[in-house]
Amino acid sequence: MAETVWSTDTGEAVYRSRDPVRNLRLRVHLQRITSSNFLHYQPAAELWKDLIDLATFRPQPTASGHRPEEDEEEEIVIGWQEKLFSQFEVDLYQNEAACQSPLDYQYRQEILKLENSGGKKNRRIFTYTDSDRYTNLEEHCQRMTTAASEVPSFLVERMANVRRRRQDRRGMEGGILKSRLVTWEPSEEFIRNNHVINTPLQTMHIMADLGPYKKLGYKKYEQVLCTLKVDSNGVITVKPDFTGLKGPYRIETEGEKQELWKYTIDNVSPLAQPEEEERERRVFKDLYGRHKEYLSSLVGTDFEMTVPGALRLFVNGEVVSAQGYEYDNLYVHFLVELPTTHWSSPAFQQLSGVTQTCTTKSLGVDKVAHFSYPFTFEAFFLHEDESSDALPEWPVLYCEVLSLDFWQRYRVEGYGAVVLPATPGSHTLTVSTWRPVELGMVAELRRFFIGGSLELEDLSYVRIPGSFKGERLSRFGLRTETTGTVTFRLHCLQQSRAFMESSSLRKRMRSVLDHLEGFSQQSSIHNVLEAFRRARRRMQEARESLPQDLVSPSGTLVS
């Protein structure tokens, strides 16, 4: 007789299935091998002395006509969450006084129906479903290691106390929140108590009653054959794994009469028939088709285009962070200024915003406040002046950094401005800021104790305001101090008919776009260009005022 190869790997296996878990079927085969008491305690010297015919160990018929060997081997197919009662539960629930919950009364009715229909089909193999009390107790008492003196950690105790949420449980609509969504100052105990994974799970245990013949129904003889756990994502955890090509698992009972049992677990879930697969494929195809039509209805069939000669600018931006400022509790007020000529925006468009108040966090030498505040806007550029001397301008992003104290009084921490990128794509911009200051200790004491500081009446005064029409903008006497920096992340998109037309309009618009692209580079020398233009104008005026005999035909002075 070949020696049995036992499977010693009793760890859990994880599977993922897209099919409904109700289609899961397991075949469990349980068989008693022999009395290990005889094999363990018989002296080796007596194994070959007075040999006894093996036929004497053959089970003898009982008075009822049943043979004990029928009780030593059992095979049964079990479905997901299928309830098979043990002998202990049959004896318990037949007594109505033992029923305490609605589930107990339901089990009592099912057991009475089974008794009237000829009894239950299982003998030793039974199950505990997700609704049974054993599932909760087993999760509370399970060990993490095989050590006899194991001391459960705090996390193990917390996980044991987690009540698994039922997958089919639905919350009440319109319910009132029992707690705050955000805890601004969590304590250490709060963090420890809420650092627990609470994934919806359903559990099922396949059990075996390994008691002696005609002594079934005792809790001490119950053994766990397999534990199944399924979550809402279709992840199935099996412990131990399906037998497959491996050897059977073994169980050795304890006590005076030690018994050796073997069992196997096989996945016998029915395969889908070709007709069912085709039907399921059609259902999914129809579902995806309806979803595609729904998305198309949201987008629309007509693609929205700009008017000829216009450029449409989309900006999806984010106020990332601010760092290097003196005080804590920062927030940023930002504003997008469109040039007065050629640019416009929809009436509903909001070109300004304020971030949330954010505390700073030490990062190296500086203190950084992370905002991650998103904003979006769109604008239109319509070029009407086709002369080459026209210098198109690009929108400017202004920002103002402020801080709040304990009494909700604010201070100005800095002003800054940056020209929006003229090229499409993702851009990360760092804006350096400054703030006006007053000389003397009194101003700083006032700023520290009662809040408030010098402010700009017009935020566009950070650079040359778009409404300024003079020749000189004097800032004489304005004392400033360099403060920190603000980081913006911008995703710019541009739309224009000129990008897909090959006519003269495309060439004309390409020229304008080249000017616009160059504006991002010339924004830093904008004052130089303006000064050069004014100098050329004054030179032209001076030429016109000179006598004609001093001016050559080329326009130069005659020495």
Verbal overview:
The protein is of the alpha+beta class. Among the domains are: 13-43 and 70-84 and 121-140 and 157-166 and 186-271, no CATH class; 310-467 and 474-497, Immunoglobulin-like, CATH 2.60.40.150. Helices cover 23% and strands 28% of the residues. The protein contains 10 helices and 19 strands. The protein has helices spanning 36-41, 87-93, 102-116, 133-141, 154-161, 188-194, 274-299, 441-449, 504-522, 526-545; strands at 13-16, 25-35, 73-79, 125-128, 201-209, 222-231, 235-239, 249-252, 259-267, 310-323, 330-337, 343-344, 352-354, 361-363, 366-382, 396-404, 410-419, 425-436, 480-495. Strands 10, 12, 14, 15, 18 and 19 form a 6-stranded antiparallel β-sheet that branches. It has a 5-stranded antiparallel β-sheet with strand order 1-7-6-5-4. A 4-stranded antiparallel β-sheet has the order 3-2-9-8. It is elongated, with a radius of gyration of 41 Å. It starts with 12 loop residues before the first strand and ends in a 14-residue tail after the last helix.
Strand content: 25-35%
Order of helices and strands: EEHEHHEHHHEEEEEHEEEEEEEEEHEHH
Termini Cα gap? 127 Å
Helix content percent band? 10-25%
Strand count, sense and barrel status of the largest sheet are: 6 strands, antiparallel
Superfamily (CATH H level) name of the domain at 310-467 and 474-497: C2 domain
Task: Give the count of helical stretches.
Answer: 10
> In CATH, what is the class of the domain at 310-467 and 474-497?
Mainly Beta
Uncertain runs with pLDDT below 50, 5 residues or more? 36-67, 163-178, 518-531, 554-559
Q: Mean pLDDT, as a whole number?
A: 76
Computed over alpha carbons, the radius of gyration is: 41 Å
Structural class: alpha+beta
CATH topology of the domain at 310-467 and 474-497: Immunoglobulin-like
CATH architecture of the domain at 310-467 and 474-497: Sandwich
The coarse overall form would be elongated
- Number of strand segments: 19
Keywords: Cell projection, Cilium biogenesis/degradation, Cytoplasm, Cytoskeleton
Pfam families: B9-C2
GO biological process, one term: epithelial structure maintenance
Subcellular location: Cytoplasm, Cytoskeleton, Cilium basal body
